[in-house]
Write a structure and sequence with these properties.
mainly alpha
């Protein structure tokens, strides 16, 4: 993200508490939304795209789990 855009969002969220609360709620729900999207990708694809789509869903899920585990241990190590 561009530095100027990040500061723009920072100033806006500091002045508008409702926006910060909405972003906080989205961050809390984003993991569940991502997991549901992977489940839809895994189970709801047509047969002709099923194998590639299922492999993509499994790869994305594995990458997600690895990233969460790394972030967890990094946060323990830094604190």
């Amino acid at each position: 993200m561009d530095y100027r855009i990040a500061h723009l969002f920072d100033r806006f969220s500091a002045a508008h508490d409702w926006f910060e609360d909405a972003l906080g709620a989205y961050v809390g729900a984003s993991e569940i939304i991502f997991g549901l999207a992977l489940l839809v990708l895994f189970f709801a694809l047509p047969a002709r795209m099923g194998t590639a789509g299922r492999r993509a869903a499994v790869a994305a899920g594995a990458a997600f789990v690895i990233a969460i585990v790394i972030a967890h241990f990094l946060s323990l190590w830094i604190d």
